Amino acid sequence: MAGKRTDYLSWDEYFMSIVSLASLRSVYSSSGACLVDSENRILSIGCNQAPYSVYDKIAGGLSNYVLRPVSNTLFTFKGRRSEFQGGTIYLSDFPSIEDARNLAQAKLQKIVYLKDIPESDDKEIANIILDAANVERVPYIKDYPEEEYSEFLVEFQSLLKKYLKKSDGPLSAEEYYMGIAVLSALRSKDPSTQVGACLVDENGRVISVGYNGATYGMSDDLIPWHSNGEQTGIKKDVKDHYVVHAEMNVLDNYRGQQDDLNRMKLYLTFSPCGPCTERLSIVPPKEIVWLRTYEKINLSDYARWFSKTETSYHAYNPEIKWDKPSYKEFFDETTKVIKKNIGKPGKMI
What we know:
This protein has 349 residues and is of the alpha/beta class. The chain contains eleven helices and twelve strands.
């Protein structure tokens, strides 16, 4: 059926935009990584950062404690390493020798990188290792200049600070997590409302992401996106019967123990509806934060569902009134910046 949103991010644009967002959280150099399984589910995200075990104990973030994005992505994954097999890792930079060893051991199928490096002994060794492990290397954009990436990151951060600002200076953790929810929402094909979700554990690791989309196995083209069944009375023409909300998807994509959810924080671009609140109340997250408040739900409903829990819930920026036009403006601007910089016609391979 016709009517789905046409300017959504492609999978490649989505994953590389996540890499770019992670790059903004890096220390010392702007580099990021995003690990994806064979079904396009994000498993782990990494940047240049110290290990979680010492992150808060290092005064000034000494450079000799910083791990590369590949190491952070692979070694902080909270799941079984067997899930790496057949997967793809998106990188801001061509892998180093150390990266190549780790990626070969992970038994990945493909590496997609944004910035290449000149021919050198190190690159040759990395390629020998990856060839032996049958890991494909694919340049995301041919001959992408490093200065162009730096300019993109400046523009990207400026945009996020404009709409999500929590502090001055570098991108904060809160801005980063809500940014991931926003980027996830841009994958949605729903022309009416795009919603994204990001689940974060007690150590600050992104555990799961989701957006509102078709049920598993169903083509987006089969959904009546411009739903008119409510008016005609034809039940099969109501899109809500086929769409899974972002909150449901982020929980369904989560691979850990359900009981661990009560130590986690959930970032949403839209506050939960009734059925999603019911689902969240079963093993509720420690905290739920949303960008825009759903007008059709009364906050007393949250109090009712979470009254017996320790869950806190609130708007990301309570002083800002996010209405539909401002929400759309933010999402349209973000899509435009991403498409302009890492989705250029003629440069994609």
